[in-house]
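Lab notebook, bench 4. The sequencing result for the construct came back, and we need a structural model before the next group meeting so we can plan mutations. Quick request posted to the team channel:

Model the 3D structure of this chain.
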Amino acid sequence: MNINKQQGASVLEFTIVIPILLIFIVLVSEVGILFYTLNTLTKTTQDAARYMSEAKVEFVTRKPIAESLIKYGNVSNTAPPLLPDGNIKVIPVITDEGTHVKVVVSYQHDLIMGTALGALTSLSTGGSLSFGNTFNLTASSIMRFAQ
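Done. Here's the predicted structure in token form:
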């Protein structure tokens, strides 16, 4: 077989495979960033619950400081935000028994590809599966009051 004919076939194979590989690379990075964000959210939620559980009598005064722990990683708001955007909702509550504090944090994660990923899944599944350009991530932690 002639080598020149084979070169044309390899170029054609490359043009078919490269978009699939690029989409796969972007999806893997998207999932990696999503897991990193969820891990950060979970760890900061645990820190805030630990801080809120130190003193039950100071529950109301500790709430803004716990929100600062979740958003910035410290109590003084001096660091850059741990997660991009300010769309973090923090809900610290005392459980029904009054012995534990529960901190629930919701965060709206924006995808790198935006609506392109949702359009791609809608196109590939015929519209039966589609999602927007954001994911709602929720983390919660329960700690027993120290006092």
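The chain has a mean pLDDT of 81.
Will bring this to the meeting.
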